[in-house]
């Protein structure tokens, strides 16, 4: 449970830290592309190593893999805390993703091996609660640390928690191994990682150069798509693949996962926007921004159990499709936020967003896994986790690129009379524009940067909302109109919402 808390703390802490990392004085002066990579590199390694990590646990013991993942996570957290530039931070975040990928499947496997019957349901509830505590506490803790200490302190907090968890593993947890060892899948891991890296690079590069026709934009995108297609073909030929694309051919399982991937695309992109809106455009301190994000976590924490109760009375389709529509509308709702929007309206939007997202992810994931035969549950979980993390990677890349392109187009008319170096720095991002505006005593430039960012956020939020809405359409088209209510489907809902 400490590790679940740790992973969710880290995920939410980084979103609060993005604005500080973009600051040339308090942080690293990272540009939007570097911040996209700082977020996306973690998710990339997490997504592509997850199914391999599960096989490693079957082979060498889940406690062994779990402990190794914690050591990697703690060591890379130290590296991230003392990174001297954005490149080092990106590399450290990628290694942190490796640590998370090693711990997550082992965490769930140990829980399922340790408990049976009602005790398992209770353990799953505690597991879900620990994730919710991490979601709620992360932004507030990050805000406090950023207000009082160096930005690297947000990563240093991982080290003592990891040390405590390692001690508990050594003393309390047996080294469970599966009697049926799944083979490793190095070809699948390399192809999926290479494909996602190339695709994400091309998409992020498009935002940096504000053009899609350049070779360094379209060539990586095409290469990434080809590698991912080859990955699918290779996995189809393997007898026991780490990622089984055959499962996606099943209508409900494939459609449900596609809908979750589109939803997580929107969640990742809109969370990226939210960090710069609250601290950059509105000028909130990190602590105030962390407190402002609590409604999202509380809503998500309440949404999963609420939806589980509703699904027992209604069909999964009747509960989750409207919830996903509401989630998409709240993402599009960022298109109506501005510099003068009252905080109470922002809080209401975030609460509804968290509640609706929580009502979709948990019940849909649990039901999808429960529809598979028991011998396919592990493979189904690997597919679901990979699809969801991939949606997050692409969401950060596409959402950040839309924001960068639209920001540049909006601020360019305000920069015509400025010197070349000032103009070049202001074009990078709103954060850089505010910094240079202070340095050259040009408050009008800072106001122009705020207006350009708001315009970019409005355009991006519209596209994000539409893409998330497509997820609701897919969910409506692929889920059956009514489901037979079964006990197994309801038990793991909280577990599914945190994986």
UniProtKB/TrEMBL annotation:
It holds the Pfam family MFS_1. It is a multi-pass membrane protein. Residues 1-483 form the Major facilitator superfamily (MFS) profile domain. GO terms for molecular function: transmembrane transporter activity. The chain crosses the membrane at residues 39-57, 64-82, 94-115, 122-145, 151-176, 188-211, 217-238, 259-278, 290-311, 318-337, 343-369, 390-407, 461-482. It is found in: Cell membrane. Its main location: membrane. Keywords: Membrane, Transmembrane, Transmembrane helix. GO terms for cellular component: plasma membrane. PANTHER family: EXPORT PROTEIN (PTHR42718:SF42), MAJOR FACILITATOR SUPERFAMILY MULTIDRUG TRANSPORTER MFSC (PTHR42718). This is MFS transporter. It comes from Amycolatopsis thailandensis.
